[in-house]
Design goal:
The protein is mainly beta. The chain has a single domain, classed as Jelly Rolls, CATH 2.60.120.10. Helix content is 7%, strand content 43%. It contains 2 helices and 13 strands. The strands form 3 sheets. A 6-stranded antiparallel β-sheet has the order 1-2-10-7-12-5, with helices on one face. The longest helix has 8 residues. 28% of the residues are buried. It catalyses: dTDP-4-dehydro-6-deoxy-alpha-D-glucose = dTDP-4-dehydro-beta-L-rhamnose.
């Protein structure tokens, strides 16, 4: 069982899986390729799973891979709470330059499908969080790129509680108007 909510960004979906509970605990099927493809119309062959651990206030992103190394992702919080953010970087898209955000938690079981051509990042809202995401293409260092989180043109509401903790690399990311796709 899979519930799909279409976002205002074409091809970007919020998915919620059914949870089966009983006296032992619960069970959930976090991903089923056939159901995903039938519900979304996207054929995606995920080839790499990533997992990150972050503490409260950590902001990771906004990241993407360019060209033939672009990645579609299916993102979920398996522990804690994050604000997940995507930006449409597809130049021919009617929603080019727009962003969408969704709170992902281990309790709400929501997942965000991020199509190729989107930048992705998240901000940790809980004391600790573990985020897992599937990718349909392998990581290539030469193709990595990103957008600075506080780009005034994008005006993303990160729901910041103080100054975010960022890597040195993420602090050096370019503005949206300066990215090469």
């Amino acid at each position: 069982m899979l519930d799909i909510v279409h976002t205002q960004l074409e091809g970007c979906f919020v998915l919620t899986t059914k949870v089966f509970k009983d006296n032992r605990g619960w069970f959930s099927e976090s991903y089923h390729q056939n159901r995903f493809e039938k519900a979304t119309g996207y054929k995606v062959d995920f080839v790499q799973d990533n997992e990150s651990y972050s503490t409260e206030g950590v902001l990771r992103g906004l990241h993407f891979q360019k060209g033939e190394y672009a990645q579609a992702k299916l993102v979920r919080a398996v522990y804690g709470k994050v604000l997940d953010v995507v930006v449409d970087c597809r130049k021919n898209s009617p929603t080019f330059g727009q962003y969408f955000s969704e709170i992902l938690t281990s309790e709400n079981r929501k997942q965000l499908f991020v199509p190729k051509g989107f930048a992705h990042g998240f901000y940790t809202l809980s004391k600790e969080a573990i985020v897992q995401y599937k990718c349909d293409n392998y990581y290539h260092k030469e193709a990595e790129s990103g957008i600075i989180y506080n780009d005034p043109e994008l005006a993303i509401d990160w729901q910041l509680n103080g100054r975010p903790v960022l890597s040195e690399k993420d602090l050096q990311l370019p503005r949206f108007k300066d990215i090469e796709i």
